[in-house]
Design brief:
The longest helix has 25 residues. 47% of the residues lie in helices and 11% in strands. The protein has a single domain, classed as 3-Layer(aba) Sandwich (Rossmann fold), CATH 3.40.50. The chain has eight helices and five strands; from the N terminus they run βαβααβααβααβα. It has a five-stranded parallel sheet with strand order 2-3-1-4-5, with helices on both faces. Helix 2 runs antiparallel to helix 3 and helix 4 packs across helix 7. It is of the alpha/beta class. The protein is globular and about 55 Å long. It binds ligand Z5A. Ligand Z5A binds next to helix 1, helix 4 and helix 8.
Length: 237
């Protein structure tokens, strides 16, 4: 556990931690990147591959989740954030606080209990998205965002973050004619600041870069290799 983003988010659980299961603390893996970079596809692929990968300890379950919307409260917040009714769209500060509220509930109700029970958690987005969208994109203070991150996560950081790096033009091409949500509609300049923000955060936080321009299967193979490299015994690397 760390209180602030670290040079490397790749960390082992403390050796003495055995958790409630006696299996030790579980592992927390996050997928980050711009809209349409393939997070949902790769989360599903990893959820199929991981249980038989030899990485999960016996009895450990794999929990897949996402932000916003990983809890019942989060589902309601997601609707308000992405598809607000009438004139209920939040301003940028309210938007930041709503994402923080979603995360606080998510960490407290789902992620932390699962990790303490020795399970693995795979999340579509986490703290890096707030830095990229609300910090770099909206221009809110990154210092303030980091303070809020510490409060919302109670110091929890991912053990591994996979950054699916995709050029904005390809993300827009993949979206095609699908209707944009409120954040996707914020304009090309905003989305480019977000894309640049992900690159900056990846460097600062020590994320693993995955080339998301590759065919789907090649991206999956790269994600699997990163997990084996970080969590696997030498025989699986
Ligand atoms: N947000 C925020 O502002 N602040 C925060 O703190 C957090 C979030 C946590 C959540 O949206 C929104 O909330 C998001 C950021 C903001 N902004 N928006 N909008 P979401 O969860 O509904 O959606 P998303 O995360 O932005 O992305 P997505 O549309 O679900 O895309 P994706 O999961 O990254 O990609 P995908 O669905 O797997 O793939 C998209 C398409 O590309 C699909 O047709 C695939 O078949 C295709 N695809 C995927 N991989 C490939 C490859 N390798 N080659 C070719 N085609 C591919």
């Amino acid at each position: 556990m760390a209180t602030t983003p670290r040079a490397s988010e790749v960390s082992a659980a403390p050796a003495e931690f055995q958790g409630r299961s006696g299996r030790g603390r579980g592992r927390f893996v996050v997928l980050e990147g711009i809209d349409g970079c393939g997070k949902t596809s790769q989360l599903e692929a990893l959820a199929t591959w991981l249980p038989a990968s030899g990485l999960l300890p016996a009895g450990a379950e794999l929990i897949t989740t996402r932000e916003p919307g990983g809890t019942a409260l989060g589902q309601a917040l997601r609707q308000l954030l992405l598809h607000p009714p009438g004139d209920a769209a939040p301003g940028s500060t309210a938007e930041l606080l709503l994402y923080a509220a979603d995360r606080a509930q998510h960490v407290q109700q789902r992620i932390q209990p699962a990790l303490e029970a020795g399970h693995w958690v795979l999340s579509d987005r986490f703290t890096g998205s707030t830095a990229a969208y609300q910090g770099h994109g909206r221009g809110l203070s990154l210092v303030l965002i980091q303070q809020l991150e510490t409060i919302a996560t109670a110091g929890l950081a991912a053990d591994l973050t996979l950054w699916l790096d995709l050029p904005l033009a390809e993300s827009l091409r993949r979206r095609g004619n699908r209707p944009a949500d409120r954040i996707e509609s914020a304009g090309a300049a905003f989305l480019q600041r977000v894309a640049d923000g992900f690159a900056a955060e990846a460097l600062q936080r020590g994320w693993r870069r995955i080339d998301a321009l590759q065919p789907l299967e090649a991206v999956s193979a790269a994600c699997q290799a990163a997990l084996r490299d970080v969590f696997g015994p030498p025989s699986l690397r």
